[in-house]
Specification:
Low-confidence stretches: none
Number of helices: 10
Largest sheet: 6 strands, antiparallel
CATH topology of the largest domain: Beta-Lactamase
Shape: rod-shaped
Helix content: 55-70%
Order of helices and strands: HHHEEEHEEEHHEHEEHEEHHEE
Structural class: alpha+beta
Radius of gyration: 50 Å
Distance between the termini: 78 Å
Mean pLDDT: 79
Length: 448
């Protein structure tokens, strides 16, 4: 058991050292309830003290009033008793009310009026009465029993000449104030308990959030390491790919007449695979640069028509090879704010995709100004895209997976790159498509 406890403490200390943020939670757990408790304790203490003082003052005030009233009734015990009973009836805090006169025979005091009828006529040798008779201001002390506390106040009743005639002895109950104080204390303790529970909940929640933050931090680190690895691997792959491609072209040129049809077919497949791999490496490097904001953007006032024509002409051989009609009818277009190189990269990507996913038919490029944007649309008569696939189309490595696309080679990065480049130029790319009919990809670029 002892070894288990030591091991648990050791684990806790190590965890705190590795995660110093937890110390704040522990301080929070102790400090807030302690602060509330101490504040409550101090406030209740002051409150109780003030209540006691108020009742004490009230008792003395009552005695002074009684002193002024009772001195004229000392010769009439019945009327004095009536006064006592009336006062006690109107003041429920008074638990004891005695008026005593000096008994010269035994130097004690005799009760002549009281709220306790059985004590009338009895003698009293209480020390407080004797001390009060010999004090000018009277005596007050705080006493009580197992159930309640009292202010016991005894004071002389003097005649008009100042001569002592009698004593008035009052016991003011503190039970109402004590009940109020106890109720306040219980409520305060309940609030402290609720505060502790809430703080525990917050600390628990903070620990959970801390765990999430730690996990997120580790995931970010893993993601960063992954990006670094991909970037490094992509850079390292480019050199051997370039060399293989060069050696293959050199071999085919040198042995063009010596290579038979089967060998040529294999060599062409090798060349095609090299081009695909080179395209994938280039796309991965482009994604890495985009995510790290390492692609410079030179946004200037640009004429869109020459860029559209140049992009279409560059992709026309690929369209002709598939028997597709690629058209762009130039019209008068306003100038735009864009990076010419990146704009061309986006358009070639969109046109390339249209060629790739259009088995037969045509591809039209048209543009028009709308509001503060220039809309350049690449429309094809290809296989189209379902609404479900459209929702994920611009995500990284997103590809349309069906029977019509299983033989189409794609990295799933082109549209993400195009969309990100468009956003960096304060633009966007939207899509409208119907399966089996075709797709319209529209690039939105701000006007100059």
């Amino acid at each position: 058991m002892k070894e288990l406890l030591i091991k648990s403490i050791s684990v806790a200390i190590r965890f705190i050292r590795e995660n110093p943020e937890v110390i704040f939670s522990l301080i929070l757990l102790v400090f807030i309830p302690a602060a509330i408790f101490l504040n409550t304790y101090y406030t209740i203490g002051k409150f109780q003290k003030n209540i006691n003082t108020i009742i004490h003052t009230k008792a003395i005030l009552a005695e002074n009033i009684i002193n002024l009233t009772a001195k004229d009734l000392l010769a009439s015990p019945d009327r004095l008793q009536t006064l006592v009973e009336k006062i006690v009836l109107e003041n429920e805090e008074i638990k004891k009310f005695d008026i005593l006169i000096r008994d010269e025979n035994n130097e004690g005091f005799r009760v002549i009026a009281s709220n306790d009828a059985s004590s009338i006529g009895t003698d009293s040798l209480e020390l407080q009465n004797i001390l009060a008779w010999n004090q000018k201001e009277g005596i007050a002390n705080l006493g009580g029993n197992d159930t309640e506390r009292f202010w016991n106040i005894t004071k002389t009743i003097n005649d008009d000449t100042g001569e002592k005639r009698a004593l008035v002895s009052l016991a003011f109950s503190l039970a109402p104030s004590d009940r109020l104080v106890n109720s306040t204390i219980n409520l305060s303790y309940l609030m402290v308990l609720l505060t502790i529970i809430i703080v525990l909940f917050l600390v628990s929640n903070q620990a959970r959030l801390f765990g999430y933050a730690l996990t997120l931090s580790k995931l970010k680190e893993v993601d960063r390491m992954k990006d670094n690895f991909i970037s490094m691997a992509s850079h390292e792959l480019r050199s051997p790919l370039t060399a293989i491609k060069g050696y293959l072209e050199f071999f085919m040129e040198k042995n063009e007449k010596k290579v038979d049809a089967d060998s040529r077919h294999y060599l062409e497949n090798i060349s095609l695979s090299i081009n695909r791999l080179e395209s994938l490496v280039n796309d991965i490097l482009e994604v890495s640069r985009l995510e790290d904001n390492q692609i410079p953007m030179n946004i200037i006032m640009t004429e869109p028509i020459p860029i559209i024509i140049e992009s279409a002409q560059e992709m026309k051989p690929a369209a002709d090879q598939k028997g597709l009609v690629l058209t762009f009818l130039p019209t008068s277009l306003p100038k735009i704010e864009a990076d010419p190189e990146r704009l061309k990269q986006i358009l070639i990507n969109l046109i390339s995709n249209a060629i790739k996913y259009t088995p037969a038919g045509k591809i039209d490029i048209f543009a028009k100004a709308k509001g503060r944007k220039l809309l350049i649309t690449v429309a094809d008569t290809g296989i189209g895209i379902s609404s479900e696939d459209q929702a994920t189309l611009f995500k990284k490595f997103s590809r349309i997976q069906n029977e019509k696309t299983k033989d189409i080679v794609s990295t799933g990065l082109g549209l993400w790159i195009a969309s990100d480049l468009a956003k960096k130029m304060n633009g966007d790319i939207t899509i409208e498509s119907i399966e089996g009919v075709g797709s319209h990809f529209t690039l939105h670029i701000p006007l100059a």
